[in-house]
Amino acid sequence: MREKIHAYKEQVDRIPVPTEKLDDIITKTVREVAPQRKRLNKTKLVYSTGAAVVALGILFSSAAVSPAMANLVSKVPLIGSIFATYGDSGLKQASEKGLTTVIGESQDVGGNAITVNEVYYDGTRFTIGYTLETKEAVGEHYLGSSPDLTVNGEAFGYAGSSKQTQITPTLATGIVDIDAMNDLPQEFKLGLSFQGEDGKKWSFSLPISERTDTKRIPIHHQQQAGGIDLTVSDVTLGPAGLVVSFQAVTEEIGYLSSYLEFKVVDEKGNELGAYSGGSQGKKSDGKEYLTGTRRFDPVTADVKELTITPYMSFPTNGGGVEMDGKGKETLIQSAMETIQKHGKNIKFHTFTISLQK
Amino acid sequence: MNKTLGLVARAKTGDSEAFQMLMHQEKANLYKMAFVYTRNEEDALEVFQETVYKALISISTVKDDQYFTTWLTRILINTAIAYLAKKRKVISLSKDMIENIRDTEGVRLEERIDLLEAMGELEEKYVTVLLLRFYKDYSVKQIAAFLDCPEGTVKTNIHRGLTLLRKKLKGEYFHERKNSCL
């Protein structure tokens, strides 16, 4: 038996692996499928986000927009909070406290209906919950990818993610999480456009207002480690999450600081769950300037202090993609090797912040 | 393992950096399995790409984070089988492929080509159980759960798969003991 296993394993293990091609596929797939990061005027990096160009082409080449947009728009009964079911404690808490904005607007296109159930928007997060009810079972990838957004009529490229859960073969719920919120006004008209793989299109126009019950605490903590000048500028606390904002400056070595993560622990020793985050960077005078946020679970009202430990978290392989102002992208060759070499021994200090300010 | 679990949890929330890290951990295994089915780089890369795409758009559906690799393997195998079904054409190792293997490894070339050829000539059900048993080190019970079929069927397919392989390879590489646990 051992001989068989040995022979088989050895033969399969010896198959040559075209690592660079695989890396390229992963990078392109993630970049194409996940929502696009916002583009800056200057050279910037686009990390993570992404996916399969070919597969997307197949999915959407037939997604012609129906001109018949005289869709039935009606108020429909809610099937319950979408937010409460997604295992995201911030959303659940916001939903249970009644802090989300109930929308309940539905559109039926050819027998398939999308209902925007609820929206949450504050200084820490912007999330939309919806349901999809179809005449026949359409499969979990029917809507393909994240919806297109407009803000006051203008296209809004965003960093974020969308998730969908199939409740029954003909009923699914979904949420859309938008991360890059810095440029959003306090009040705006949100255009939300979903596309089905059969060409059906649903478009909503929703008034959005920012909740004002978040608390921004300036920190301006600075430290240096392994050539990274790190500034944690502030944390923003809200009922649905906590956001740590930071800036980092390094020599030009492949956006090392985009691999920064933070461990956040309250004074009782509870580590806050970490969610998504994004970074945007630009190069100037041989240095890289990065601005980013990381989102965590909300803290309870009795928490007075948080201990924050910055640390580096590297993938085992891979690299980055550089995008110039015109959207032209270039793969950064061997970036990960250089980054790991520079970054493996970087250790930051833990620091404590008071939430009583 | 804990780090992988953390990455899976993050990837499920839409963290695409975490997703990329997971893919980089798994890419070599995924590619090799795809290659066993397709026997050429071009098709194996197609299967790999489709697998990454499917994983990305459905990672939030992973029910138990510790079975992420199993979940991903299932996607790869289903994708490879569907891909071959769509393609349904005779695949043979091209000269380029042979040159590539020679250049990359340089040793035991004939043995490996024989084995890859032989594996590729098997029915997909045998390729799948052999990969899961001998490459992924799954137990018969785990394979039965993975494929949702009786353990007896798994044992039979492993045994037949090995017998067929042995015939094709003239008994050169696979020496099965009489008291095999299969």
From TrEMBL, chain A:
Annotated DUF4179 domain residues: 41-133
Coiled coil: none
Alphabetized InterPro entries for the sequence: DUF4179 (IPR025436), DUF5643 (IPR040680)
Family annotation (Pfam families): DUF4179, DUF5643
Keyword Transmembrane helix in record: yes
Transmembrane intervals: 45-65
Domain DUF5643: start-end pairs: 214-322
Record's keyword terms, sorted: Membrane, Transmembrane, Transmembrane helix
Highest rank taxon of the organism: Bacteria
The keyword Transmembrane is assigned to this record: yes
Name of the protein in its database record: DUF4179 domain-containing protein
Organism annotation: Brevibacillus porteri
Automatic annotation (TrEMBL), chain B:
InterPro entries: RNA_pol_sigma-70-like, RNA_pol_sigma-70_dom, RNA_pol_sigma-V, RNA_pol_sigma70_r2, RNA_pol_sigma70_r4_t2, RNA_pol_sigma_r2, RNA_pol_sigma_r3/r4-like, WH-like_DNA-bd_sf
Keyword Transcription appears in the UniProt entry: yes
Pfam families: Sigma70_r2, Sigma70_r4_2
Residue ranges of every copy of the RNA polymerase sigma factor 70 region 4 type domain listed in the record: 114-164
The keyword Isomerase is assigned to this record: no
Family statement: Belongs to the sigma-70 factor family. ECF subfamily.
PANTHER family linked to this entry: RNA POLYMERASE ECF-TYPE SIGMA FACTO, RNA POLYMERASE SIGMA FACTOR
Name by which UniProt lists this protein: RNA polymerase subunit sigma-70
